[in-house]
Amino acid sequence: MVISVRYPVFHFIGMLQKIKSLCYFIFLYPYYKIILGSLGSRSKIISPLKIDGASNISIGKKVSIGYKTWLASVPHTGSPRCSLVIEDGTYIGNFNHIYATSGIRIGKKVLTADKVYISDNLHSYGDINTAIIDQEIKQIQEVTIGDGSWLGENACIIGANIGKGCVVGANAVVTKNIPDYCVVIGIPARIIKRFDMDTGQWVRTTTDGEFISE
Description:
six-stranded parallel β-sheet, 14% helix, alpha/beta, 22 strands
């Protein structure tokens, strides 16, 4: 007769996860609470790769920051202020890279997949006689990600605003502002759908976001 150990094993794994979570809130949560500008209740930062400029980073309630994500808010461009704000209920995937030199705000209940890049700056490359690594960092537009949006795997948001309730497709590179309730894909990203408030449906659009009449 074969005796199944399936359920005891699952129970043991569940217990380990509870212990791990308890240890986080006993030891790591108080540490992040001290070093960050603010940290809301029940928020988790899971084994970050780096946290630079921690005092300029504010994280809301019930936020989850995935494994090996790099968070930074450092005024390398000489901005008089610098902030990275992640609002309540947002889930940041694994291996994300979010780097503010002036301002990035990620709204409430935003979802990012793994390996997403969000930045409000670029490396300068104007001087061909100087290695790019030695040239100054260029400040571009501050970034806002609207409430309830979803950024797909490997998406890059560089000096652009994303509206509320938007879907950014996997591997898209967004460098221009996107209005509320749009679906964007591609390099550079272009709008392919918008939600039509009159019909209550997602409708195909031109790349400028104009509805295509059927």
